[in-house]
């Protein structure tokens, strides 16, 4: 190979290496640029996402705050008519007076705090189902939940049948008893002992589902000699929207099925 040819080969090799290096440099620059673009895009997306999340959180907090403020305002408005009332008292007893108003009378026992929202007098209407009556019917109801500072709540419920026009048609159910709170290990157990005017005695056990809802089921049902024949029952009570007391009762029928028996929504009248 001549010197000239050798120089040409060397130049070609040098130029080839230079071209390859230049190409690799462009690829490196492109990769760096894409990496920077991706990082910037991710940073922008993350910032947008955080901004959206923050906005949603603020919106949720504002909604919750408005909802809480509305609930407090509604409770304050209701208290204007219900807060000064209480159940009547008979004078002359040396005992603490019963009260259905937490603003008046003795302090509620600390053992009853799980049931605090129930205290009051509640009035309203509901729907019942009684096969012996021919099926569904409408009723009015009053429930008095009171205390005297002891480790129990007193319970008294009366209902009456309403006709198709909503007028009184006759008496319906009546029950009285006590709510208590027991302890099973680390758990609170809600107890409800009831005596019915129909000749039935029931013991319910259950638990608080939330701070304002309670679910119970019968453990024992006893009937007197003249009492009605009934099966066990399950009840769910809760403070619902607007501060009302709502409940549902299901009861075991002759075929062994648990079927809806009573449901009502009652407004606070005292407390």
TrEMBL record:
This is Ferric nitrobindin-like protein. Residues 1-94 are annotated as: Disordered. It holds the Pfam family THAP4_heme-bd. PANTHER family: PEROXYNITRITE ISOMERASE THAP4, THAP4 PROTEIN. Residues 1-18 have a biased composition (Polar residues). Residues 23-80 have a biased composition (Basic and acidic residues). A motif (GXWXGXG) lies at residues 120-126. The lineage of its organism: Bacteria, Bacillati, Actinomycetota, Actinomycetes, Mycobacteriales. Belongs to the nitrobindin family. Residues 112-268 form the THAP4-like heme-binding domain. It comes from Nocardia africana. InterPro entries: Calycin, Nb(III)_bact/plant, Nitrobindin, THAP4-like_heme-bd.
């Amino acid at each position: 190979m001549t010197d000239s040819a050798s120089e040409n080969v060397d130049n070609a090799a040098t130029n080839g290496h230079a071209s390859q290096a230049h190409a690799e440099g462009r690829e490196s620059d492109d990769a760096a640029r894409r990496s920077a673009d991706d990082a910037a895009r991710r940073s922008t997306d993350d910032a947008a996402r955080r901004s959206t999340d923050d906005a949603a959180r603020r919106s949720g907090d504002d909604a919750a705050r408005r909802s809480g403020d509305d609930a407090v305002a509604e409770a304050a408005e209701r208290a204007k008519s219900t807060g000064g009332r209480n159940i009547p008292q008979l004078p002359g007893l040396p005992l603490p007076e019963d009260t259905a108003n937490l603003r008046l009378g003795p302090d509620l026992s600390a053992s009853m705090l799980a049931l605090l929202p129930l205290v009051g007098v509640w009035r309203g209407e509901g729907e019942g189902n009684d096969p012996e009556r021919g099926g569904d019917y409408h009723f009015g109801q009053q429930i008095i939940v009171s205390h005297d500072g002891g480790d129990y709540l007193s319970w008294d419920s009366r209902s009456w049948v309403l006709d198709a026009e909503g007028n009184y048609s006759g008496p319906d159910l009546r029950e009285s008893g006590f709510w208590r709170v027991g302890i099973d290990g680390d758990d609170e157990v809600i107890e409800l002992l009831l005596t019915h005017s129909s000749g039935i005695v029931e013991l319910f056990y259950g638990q608080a589902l939330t701070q304002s809802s309670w679910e119970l089921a019968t453990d024992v049902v006893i009937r007197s000699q003249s009492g009605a024949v009934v099966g066990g029952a399950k009840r769910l009570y809760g403070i619902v929207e607007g501060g009302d007391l709502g409940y549902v009762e299901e009861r075991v029928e002759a075929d062994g099925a648990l079927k809806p028996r009573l449901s009502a929504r009652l407004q606070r009248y005292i407390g």
